[in-house]
Amino acid sequence: MRRVTGLILIAFIVQAADIPMTLVSDDEAEPIHSAIMRKEAWTQDAARRLRAEAEKRLKEGPWSVTFERPKSLDLDLDVHDYYSQAPYWWPDPTNPTGAYVRKDGQTNPDRFLANKGALNAMCEAVFTLGTAAFLLDDPRYAQRAVRDVDTWFVNPKTRMNPNLEFAQVVFGSEAARGEGILDGRVLIHALQGMEFLARTGAWDPKDQAAVHKWFEEYLDWLTRSKKGQYEMKSGNNHASWWTAQAAAVASYVQNKPAETMVFTYYRDHILPGQIHTDGSAPREEARTRSLSYSAFNLEAYATNSRVAQVNGENLWTAQGRRGVTLDTVIQYLRPYLQDPKGWSKEQVIEFQNNGLYSLAFAGMGLMNPQYVALYRKLERPEGAFLSLVDLLVGRWESAAHQTRH
Predict the structure, then answer these.
(1) Which of 101, 121, 387, 405 could be bridged to 46 by S-S, CB 3.0 to 4.6 A?
(2) How far is the C-alpha of 226 from the C-alpha of 405, rounded, in Å?
(3) What is d(CA 106, CA 263) in angstroms, rounded to the nearest whole number?
(4) At what angle do helices 357-365 and 369-377 cross, to 10 degrees?
């Protein structure tokens, strides 16, 4: 019996080793799972919050772009095409039937949001359920995650076409816009959820292959299309998030040449092209939500660097002009993350700390406990993703404590 059990365990380990991981390494996934099963103290609060979120997601979805479609559009849309409208564009009061005009930082509440809301909800559900299925050993979560994934990516009646050609459309504009690719950044969470889901053994390999093919096609569009190229070269947070997204997808489909290209592009163009020697990002500071976009840009950097770290590449210490690093960016923004009221540039809305996990990722990547401590100290929203970040941080701190002793 022991021999059979041992063979099953070995088979699981071999299978797990073949599964790519985007934000969580093999060296972290199973130790965290085992620590939760042993009910180690540092896991309990985060595991409880993760389970609570998973229970909510059991009762939601599935979602599809085909369930609700925009009306009265002069666009050649397929029912499977994702469609959204740009947030800061409004009807022109001097020409109500003409092209929309831009009001930076002012969100138009009347734009079509159904597909964007569905994409966000699906990605969060797949992340939550897939993560909880593996870390908490609960097959109910896996079964529901499989259903959500199948509806969005696999089922020919409900699947989304693997592109964002019609994302963040501006009424009355014929120009190609790459900005809508930003909508796809939430797919990074879905990828990590599916990687955890694959480790449970509850996901049919044929469906896994279908999803893999979907993301291969999406990566091709992301890197080769006119809009993808536009976004890549945009020079602001859009380029940063293009990089993080392309890196995550390339990692998932195990496309090493694309992965290397993205990491090199970040090192050679994103960091040196966007960040001044004091750590500021002038393109973000020119916006009406300057602190929000500066922190949002840092979030993209940290996400991309975390993906690189999991894949054996160190971007944490990559250098821009005059030795600028990601650490320089954090040091510049750190006082304002702690006290947003000290920020003197334009910020037309209240600053939200939604992306503070970037401090946790950077703290672990740069081996700087002060950043991790600041992440723990600052008030932030709850959710499944931050529960996972807390588990990663808890394991990192626990391992450091064991090393010291």
Answers:
(1) 387
(2) 55
(3) 33
(4) 160
